[in-house]
Design brief:
Distance between the termini: 26 Å
Radius of gyration: 18 Å
Largest sheet: none
Order of helices and strands: HHHHHHHH
Number of helices: 8
Number of strands: 0
């Protein structure tokens, strides 16, 4: 069963990466641009102050400072209270890989941000969305670790549902606030999702190796 699960994780990782490459090759095409502008128009047609403040809060919750704060709290919880170090280690590597991988991809594609509807000030390139990539990769892995250590099925499903909703809202906030095209956000989800599956595979393999080593000792 474990080998089957890992195989599907591997297939999913490769599939998401492949879709990212396809989108990266075609985001400047007329059909993608048309879809981008249609979605932006729909999401920005109604922008009351309360909703704008909510989306600013959501987008800030996935900002750099809160990423490191989330990692710190998670690591303290797992190392001190649960006496487990593997999860914080893998999550730390995931954050570094996802963040600096996003910097690398943005420098490769050099897509300019939308200039016609920005509710917040931001610089840098646009493709893929860093917030979307990090929320899917780093925060996705964080929610995964929380879920797998919960015994009750309903609680695991609740954590998974809340985590998925949070990731989706972070992506939507970037479009709503006018700092990314929808294709940027989708690309961020694809790249981050691929890294998420990569680090889940890595975590599972390391856990098996550690268990084997302990039994051998």
């Amino acid at each position: 069963m474990g080998k089957v699960v890992k195989l599907w994780l591997l297939i999913g990782m490769v599939g998401l990466a492949a879709f990212f490459v396809l989108l990266a090759l075609g985001y400047s095409g007329s059909e993608v641009e048309k879809m981008d502008h249609m979605i932006i128009s729909a999401l920005t047609a109604y922008q009351p102050g309360e909703l704008t403040r909510l989306f600013i809060w959501i987008t800030n919750s996935a900002a750099k400072t809160n990423e490191w704060l989330s990692l710190l709290v998670f690591s303290v919880f797992f190392i001190i209270w649960r006496r487990q170090w593997l999860e914080p280690l893998v999550l730390t590597i995931c954050l570094f890989t996802t963040r600096y991988g996003n910097f690398f991809l943005k420098d490769v594609y050099e897509r300019e941000r939308p200039s016609f509807h920005q509710l917040v000030e931001i610089g840098g390139y646009s493709f893929p969305s860093g917030h979307a990539m990090i929320s899917a990769g780093f925060f996705g892995l964080l929610f995964y670790f929380l879920a797998v250590h919960i015994k009750r099925t309903w609680a695991r499903r609740l954590v998974a549902a809340l985590g998925s909703l949070y990731i989706l809202l972070v992506g939507l906030s970037r479009i709503y606030l006018g700092v990314h095209y929808p294709s940027d956000v989708v690309a961020g989800f694809l790249a981050g999702g691929s890294l998420l599956l990569l680090f889940i595979i890595l975590y599972q393999l390391l856990a098996v190796f550690i268990l084997w080593h302990e039994r051998k000792s």
